């Protein structure tokens, strides 16, 4: 199950200044960014994102569709002793929540950013009032918002269709959710930094995608994993996120260790992405 290259060949955002010649200054010597230009970039990125039905489906709709398909299986609606008495469909709601983040951060976003770099769009923007960071900020904001929207959709459908209880520790659930989105976007930024082309970004993203899905519990919920495997998975960002979301859903505050793992991974991935990212 892999997503199409999200929008690597999408129409580039409209230029807000002259095209940069070969000897133009690099991004660090670009003019100061203006709020109006940044808003123009955000509007352009929103239009381009809305024109990509593949990305919209895989990020926004697919996790909920998967939840509906799994919940339609009778055995998924029966209580499981090895899951502490909850049903499989209850355990899969946080899994689908995390799946939307993995889709957005690892599969959808990197091909877009690397495609902009590959076609010289980021370099040309360095000679305009818009800094290339405006494009990165817009992309991360859009994909993060899409992931959060998909998470809310999964929670709503789970409650309405399968009577899955809503999280009882709302604030703790929100904290874990935001940290999980930050980790997913940081991982996507690192994939973008290490990939020179959009095709490479798609390949690297796919290689990262499946291990992250496993750690989130797509094939086997973290609660049902053997102890040793569960400990390994909980040291990964989405394994820790799955446990944090489960704890908040049951009414407890997410464990400090799980939240700490998310914060640590976000910091490490962000630092690595900033270290290796190139504008051209």
Automatic annotation (TrEMBL):
Name of the protein this chain belongs to: Transport permease protein
Q: Highest taxon of the source?
A: Bacteria
Q: ABC transmembrane type-2 domain: from which residue to which, for each copy?
A: 54-280
KW Glycoprotein (keyword) present: no
Record-linked InterPro entries: ABC-2_transporter (IPR052902), ABC2_TM (IPR013525), ABC2_TM_bact-type (IPR047817), ABC_2_transport (IPR000412)
Keyword annotations from UniProtKB, A to Z: Antibiotic resistance, Cell membrane, Membrane, Transmembrane, Transmembrane helix, Transport
Composition bias, kind Low complexity: at what positions?
1-32
Region (Disordered) location: 1-36
Name the family the entry cites: Belongs to the ABC-2 integral membrane protein family.
- Its main subcellular localisation, reduced to a broad class, is membrane
Residues spanning the membrane: 56-76, 91-113, 134-158, 170-193, 200-220, 257-277
Question: Topology relative to the membrane, per the entry?
Answer: Multi-pass membrane protein
Task: Please verify whether the record's keywords include ATP-binding.
Answer: no
A Pfam cross-reference name? ABC2_membrane
Name where it's found: Cell membrane; Membrane
